[in-house]
Amino acid sequence: MNSQAWILLAVYLTVLLLMAWPLGAWLVSVSEGRLPRWMALFQAAERWLYRLAGVDASAGMGWRPYTLALIVFNFLGVLAVYALQRLQGVLLLNPQGMAGVSADSSFNTAVSFVSNTNWQGYVGEATMSYLTQMLALTVQNFFSAATGIVVVIALIRGFAARSSASIGNFWVDMTRVTAYVLLPLSLVFAVFLVSQGVIQNFSPYKEVSTLDAPGTQTLAMGPVASQEAIKMLGTNGGGFFNANSAHPYENPSALTNFLQMLAIFLIPTALVFMFGRMVGDSRQGWAVLAAMTAIFVVSVVVVTVQEQQGNPVLTQLGADQVASATQPGGNMEGKEARFGIAATGLFAALTTAASCGAVNGMHDSFTPLGGAVPLVLMQLGEVVFGGVGTGLYSMLIFAMLAVFIAGLMIGRTPEYLGKKIETYEMKMTSIAILVTPLLVLAGTAVAVQAEAGKAGVANPGAHGFSEILYAFTSAANNNGSAFAGLSANTPFYNTLLAIAMGFGRFGVIVPVLAIAGSLAAKKRMAVTAGTLPTHGPLFVTLLIGTVLLVGLLNYVPALALGPVVEHLMLWYQK
Q1: How far apart are CA 436 and CA 438, in angstroms?
Q2: N or C, where is the chain less crowded by C-beta within 10 Å?
């Protein structure tokens, strides 16, 4: 990895920490309802909203009613997004006269955006009206992100509580996270994006003359900046345009590219700091952050080095891939030429470590091991910072598994943050960890056997297998990025991937909330000489080892059939 890539990574992590630290403090205030006096007017509006909805803001919820409220709310979101797509042809704000979206694509997209996956099997600028982009997709970008955040807040309350039957109030948590965190951050970021050239309008698409006259080109318009802001901050990833963050109207400069990368990790990092403060020991947050950062840095180094060393096939064809004063060198196929391999590789690691899915390059064109890095980051359960909320609660699940393993080794009842980790917690932990590998591997197996699944593969062989494996990994882990090269906008893939997205999201959330309820009801135990410290280097190492071993063991055979064998074929072909 060259000096430019190291400097970019170091600057990125430094700025990220400086921005996330105060945001973590603000998240604590929001989750505990301790807002400053100058927000009295907003709080009055909040109370009026509760009265209008018939919500008792002072009433706590056990994990079951909390979970039921969450599922009902999100199910209604699926219905709303589906209906808006189907009916967009007769609704307002449709200057291009977009027809209603097909039933299978509408179902896939509805589940996708409600589950914070934002998988897009369609071409955005050719499929969705302005109303659908705003009222269906952008709204769910807020609500799905808020859902992930309130789940991790509920889990943290479970750790911090001293024998309580409540893990919070879902309706209050959703309202406060949306109104006091996501909306203001998105408003500020959207204004910045507009100032940098990201478009925000309701104009019809424009026909312009090209430099090669008399040719013409259609330029898509629309309210892009407002969707782009929450797309990144909420780790959603669904782009207004098909080219996503490689499109100059979504990502016009190196500055916007850097800040979009910051936006992806900003809230997930702040939530780690919030975790440390809420459990009363900031060292716990730093330990989790250290484990996340270590895996992330190694991932960035691997993907960048693999792409900078180039592609041997292109070398054989006479392409010069040596870096010089006149060219960047390396495997530039599929990279964002404006930003180069360093920024594109960092972006690829970021978007798949987080549950984002936004891309500024084509992962399908990466070298086999370079493309394996985004794949592996998703298969770890997206716990390396991860999506807003989802990354931290998934990492805390692994932390409980780590202390359970340590307890077995020393013959002591495992504890984490003063709470005993017993049979019930481990059952729920097992479900939360195993549900996504089951969906990924079963879905991939069905797709490679079914004729409808094989019909979408343009690259038979190891690479085609990687494309299918990537699609189901992305769907079940609620990432949303695609390897590309796979024709997935078919009834077969739209239906199968939607099932993976839905169960991948709520199949993890339900056991996590069950754990939150169980932990909240337990008394906190005093620290003794036999308590395993969970804030030092030993625990960080144990946590990293648990994530890598448990997270990857399920996928080793599949990875061997895809990127590993493709790498061997590429570099050692005779």
Answers
A1: 5
A2: C
